Amino acid sequence: MANEPVLSPRQVEEQRTRVIDALTEHFAQDNLTMEELEQRLDQVYAASTTTALTAILSGLPSLSPQAVAPATAQPAPVRAHEGYASRTLFALMSGITRRGHWMVPRQLNTIALMGGMELDFRSAQLTHPVTEINVLVVMGGIVVTVPPGVRVESEGFAIMGGFEDGRSAASTTDPSAPLIRLKGFALMGGVELRVMDIAVEGTP
Question: What is the pTM of this model?
Answer without folding.
Answer: 0.60
